Amino acid sequence: MTTDRASVERFVFHEARLMDEHRYDEWLELWTQDARYWVPAGAADGDPSKDVSLIYDDYVRLQGRISRLKSGVAYAQSPRSRLCRVISNFEFDEAPTSEVVVRSNFLLAEQRLGKQDVFAGSSIHRLRLSEEGFKIASKKVILINGDAFIDNLTFLL
Question: Lesser CB count within 10 Å: N end or C end of the chain?
Answer without folding.
Answer: N
